Amino acid sequence: QVQLVQSGGGLVQPGGSLKLSCVVSGFTSANYAIGWFRQAPGMEREGIGCIQTTDGKAYYENFVRGRFTVSRDNAKNTVYLQLNNLKPEDTAVYYCASTRLCGGGGYVHWGQGTQVTVSS
Question: Cβ atoms within 10 A of the Cβ of 48, count?
Answer without folding.
Answer: 21
